[in-house]
Design brief:
The complex is a heterodimer of chains A (about 475) and B (about 350).
Chain A lengths: L5 H20 L3 H17 L3 H23 L2 H35 L15 H18 L6 H9 L1 H4 L7 H13 L6 H35 L6 H32 L17 H7 L2 H12 L9 H18 L4 H23 L1 H4 L4 H23 L3 H10 L11 H16 L3 H5 L24 H16 L13
Helix pairs in contact in A: 1-2, 2-6, 2-8, 3-4, 3-5, 3-6, 4-5, 9-10, 9-18, 9-20, 10-16, 10-18, 12-13, 13-14, 14-16, 16-17
Chain B lengths: L6 H20 L5 H6 L9 H9 L7 E4 L2 H4 L4 H12 L1 E2 L2 E3 L7 H14 L4 E6 L11 H4 L2 H5 L9 H21 L23 E3 L5 E3 L6 H14 L16 H16 L3 E6 L21 E3 L19 H18 L5 E2 L7
Parallel strand pairs in B: 1-3, 1-4, 4-7, 7-8
Antiparallel strand pairs in B: 2-9, 5-6
The chains are: A mainly alpha (about 475), B alpha/beta (about 350).
Chain lengths: ~475, ~350
């Protein structure tokens, strides 16, 4: 049940909202929170019942270990932490990496290996990482969630369950606790609708049509065909735009859905193609993953505690792990290596060539952004391609024989519009003046925020146009790219 | 500065705006020929030919065949016309307007379009040993916007998704009509037109250019294997106990009734043709009992159990199609001998 599918938009979401607000209307606030948990489990279970059982098992184990890590005796707390990390990493290793690791190990020693073709539970990378962070925080702070229901909802809250954002327990806990006692801030609802509508339109009106146009090009490269330069560039630029609007659309929809239930979720995407360096890019792309990698991998590796060279090594390893987190394939390893190399070079340049970093003249900025985008787009080829030969073939085709453009004029126009939006326009959260900090007022008071989107009749009309257009284009929904991880 | 609405005010404004935007989108005009061109079944094309046959071909239609791929690939118009002439001495014009996949709502849309354009004397609607519980997925692509909006909602699992898709269809067809860029051709091209017959009893052309030859004969073992595989996938005919079984298939009954009314209003008769699957029961299930006052031509007969007549578990092969077409022409000559015009020259096909 994708956020952009009719089953979700026309059945699941209206029923869940109706049930939630029905219970709250009659003062059953605690029950409304339980209802959200049940709805979230139904949302997950309709994909695969067995995987839902796995999710529940994972929640139960992490809940118990989290309590032990926070409240047990000192030695027990440490053991609980290590067991939790081992449990979560084993789970993700088995489902996501076992076949890849075993087949490569077998190939290395010349043995045949019959793939087990283990079906990857949806969102396993997200809910596993979220729970790893939770148990580590329990161990660090000595605080944990005592209510199994609230812990389960923290993990399964359906707007963020499948593809993030990766949420800290300390971020949602006070919000759910508040909702259990107090009314929903209804002012959030118009913003939820508007941000959701923008996300839906990004997904179904921009990302999906571009995907339908460029998928045959990647399929051709995968089949060993040699693409023309026009085809390779179209595929590369098209995929860069597709994944941007796919993930940006998903993140907007997740935030919008959260607001509809009175919950703020952290910002996960902030115009990454406007970045002027790869460091800045990763502060804008999948921000909660970057933060997780920084807090729980980079720091665990030693951070900057042993000098600059070790810091660079740790940066490199962290990015490589981030790459492999996306999938068990050599293409993701190469993608991770490219980004690891780029970000390490960027940090090194800041250390040893600081004059590069401070260049702010317009030509320098344009040059930096162009260089960054070229590198990021080439890396996307590896991210998207099924195999390494296909990725290398397409990369080589970028300087291959010219040829006619492989897509229609309307797709080219759509790609140009999408590029303009990604590179120059304010993003949907900036337009809405969204505040992720719970201490900051959101929605901003009308008199103080004239430049931000307000719930006016014109905004309602705009949201209606986006919703009708987004719904109309959702007849053939494509899976969100990040649902695969 | 524009007035900031309260949350409830915003939701009301949103509801009104949704209704306005939706209504505006669905009244966008378009060339209906472009609508039929926008449809394919995923593997084959036929809807554009249907529109051309109904609106650009002056050949009249006396008998219109409406159904699924069983009828589309199982009945030859040429055989029917020739054998009816031989049996009655009358010339009839037959159009096989069947489209792949099941769903009575699409049959209604095709019947309505045909009644409006050609006023046939008789509609023959396909019946099977099973009836679909679901509406046809192509309904939203081919039906008039008003029919999509006024479709029954309570027994129609596609109603809301069809409604949601409608503005996109209308906007897309509007732009295509404005820019004259439909899926196939901006205007009718006689050279491309297949002619008054769309015969797929011998060969089937696929969208990817491949041609499926239906002149194949399968062994009984092979057919029985295909039959067993089909039966393993088949849902029970009735999910509700007998006292409630008439509550099932309500969407089909409703659209069959609409078809009867539309055909009646245009002065046409309506009959059913039973096209069974291989080894299916000798008569259609009494799913549509309140409609069985109409004649139902059984096209299976002994052929239903003859493996040499089948292409797969549900479709006739070329020989089977000839068998079914002959059978239909004889039954038609017997039950409705006065169709078309007097005087014809018996031909071969």
């Amino acid at each position: 049940m994708l956020f952009s599918s009719y089953a979700f938009l026309l059945v699941f979401l209206p029923l869940t909202l109706a049930g939630y607000y029905f219970l709250r209307h009659f003062g059953r606030r605690e029950a409304s929170i339980s209802f959200l948990l049940v709805a979230s489990l139904v949302f997950y279970a309709q994909w695969n019942l067995a995987h839902c059982a796995l999710l529940i098992l994972s929640i139960a184990v992490n809940y118990a270990l989290g309590r032990l890590a926070a409240e047990g005796p000192e030695k027990g707390r440490r053991v609980a932490l290590h067991v939790a990390i081992a449990f979560n990493l084993s789970l993700i290793f088995w489902f996501k990496y076992f076949d890849f690791a075993a087949s490569n190990a077998a190939a290395l020693v010349g043995l045949d290996y019959a793939l087990l073709n283990i079906v990857l539970p949806l969102g396993i990378s997200f809910f596993t990482f979220q729970q790893v962070a939770y148990v580590v925080d329990c161990h660090r702070t000595g605080e944990c969630e005592r209510s199994p229901r609230d812990f389960a909802l923290f993990v399964t809250f359906f707007p963020q369950l499948i593809a993030g954002p990766i949420v800290h327990h300390g971020y949602t806990r006070p919000q759910f606790a508040n909702l259990a006692k107090n009314p929903v801030n209804l002012d959030l609802i118009p913003y939820g609708v508007m941000i959701f509508a923008m996300g839906l339109a990004k997904k179904t009106l921009i990302a999906d049509p571009i995907a339908r146009a460029i998928d045959p090009l990647f399929a051709a490269a995968g089949a060993g065909d040699i693409l023309t330069a026009a085809e390779a560039w179209t595929a590369m630029v098209g995929y860069a735009l597709q994944i941007y609007f796919d993930f940006s659309g998903y993140c907007d929809m997740a935030i919008g859905l959260g607001l509809l239930f009175g919950i703020r979720l952290p910002i996960n995407f902030m115009s990454p193609y406007k970045a002027r360096s790869i460091i800045e890019f990763w502060r804008r792309w999948h921000m909660t993953l970057s933060a997780f990698l920084r807090d729980y991998v980079y720091i665990a590796l030693g951070g900057n505690r042993k000098g600059e060279l070790f810091r660079l090594r740790n940066v490199f390893l962290t990015m490589l792990i981030g790459g492999v987190w996306h999938g068990a394939a050599w293409t993701f390893v190469i993608w991770g290596l490219i980004h690891a190399a780029l970000i390490t070079l960027n940090h090194a340049a800041r250390l040893w060539l600081p004059q590069l970093d401070v260049m702010r003249s317009p030509p320098a900025v344009v040059a930096k952004r162009a260089a960054l985008m070229t590198a990021v787009m080439i890396a996307w080829i590896f991210f998207r391609s099924e195999t390494l030969p296909a990725a290398f073939g397409m990369t080589a085709s970028l300087v291959g024989a010219p040829g006619p453009l492989p897509v229609s004029g309307s797709i080219l126009a759509l790609m140009a519009l999408a590029a303009g939006l990604a590179l120059f326009a304010p993003n949907s959260l900036e337009i809405a003046g969204y505040q992720e900090k719970l201490s900051a007022a959101f929605p901003r008071p009308a008199g103080f925020a004239p430049k931000f989107l307000q719930p006016t009749p014109l905004a309602a009309l705009s949201a209606a146009i986006l919703l009708v257009g987004g719904l109309a284009a959702a007849w053939k929904p494509a899976v969100f790219i990040y649902f695969n991880f | 500065m524009e007035r900031r609405l309260s949350p409830l005010g915003f939701l009301v404004a949103l509801g009104v705006a949704l209704a306005v935007v939706f209504s505006f989108a669905i009244v966008l005009p378009h060339d209906r020929y472009y609508r039929y061109q926008a449809h394919d079944s995923g593997t084959t094309r036929k809807a554009d030919w249907i529109y051309e046959r109904l609106h650009f071909d002056p050949t009249p239609i006396d008998v219109a065949l409406i159904g699924t791929s069983r009828m589309g690939g199982g009945i030859s118009e040429a055989v029917l016309e020739a054998e009816y002439c031989r049996a009655t001495g009358r010339r009839i014009h037959v159009a096989n307007l069947a489209l792949p996949e099941t769903g009575r709502n699409l049959h209604y849309a095709i019947l309505k379009e045909t009644a409006r354009a050609k006023k046939p004397s008789l509609f023959i609607i396909e019946l099977n040993e099973v009836e679909s519980r679901k509406p046809h997925r192509s309904f939203v692509m081919l039906a008039d916007a008003a029919d999509v909006v006024t479709a029954p909602a309570a027994v129609n699992v596609n109603y809301f998704s069809d409604l949601a898709r409608l503005p996109g269809r209308q906007a897309s067809l509007f732009i295509q009509s404005l820019t004259r860029t439909p899926a196939v051709s901006p205007s009718f091209e006689p050279a491309r037109y297949e002619g008054p017959h769309f015969d797929r009893t011998q060969k089937l052309k696929l969208l990817d250019g491949r041609v499926v030859d239906k002149n194949v004969v399968r062994s009984r073992e092979e057919m029985d294997r295909l039959h067993a595989a089909r039966m393993a996938d088949e849902a029970p005919l009735h999910l509700l106990p007998p006292p409630l079984s008439r509550l099932e298939y309500r969407l089909s009954r409703l659209y069959l009734r609409r078809m009867e009314e539309t055909a009646g209003a245009s002065g046409a008769g309506l009959a059913y043709a039973y096209l069974p699957a291989y080894r299916a029961p000798a008569a259609p299930a009494a799913l549509l009992a309140d409609l069985d006052a109409r004649p139902a031509f059984d096209l299976g007969g002994p052929g239903a159990d003859d493996p040499s007549l089948w292409f797969d578990a549900t479709h006739w092969n070329a020989r089977g199609a000839e068998f079914a077409s002959l059978r239909l022409s004889l039954l038609l000559a017997r039950k409705a001998p006065g169709l078309g015009q007097a005087g014809c020259t018996p031909s071969t096909y």
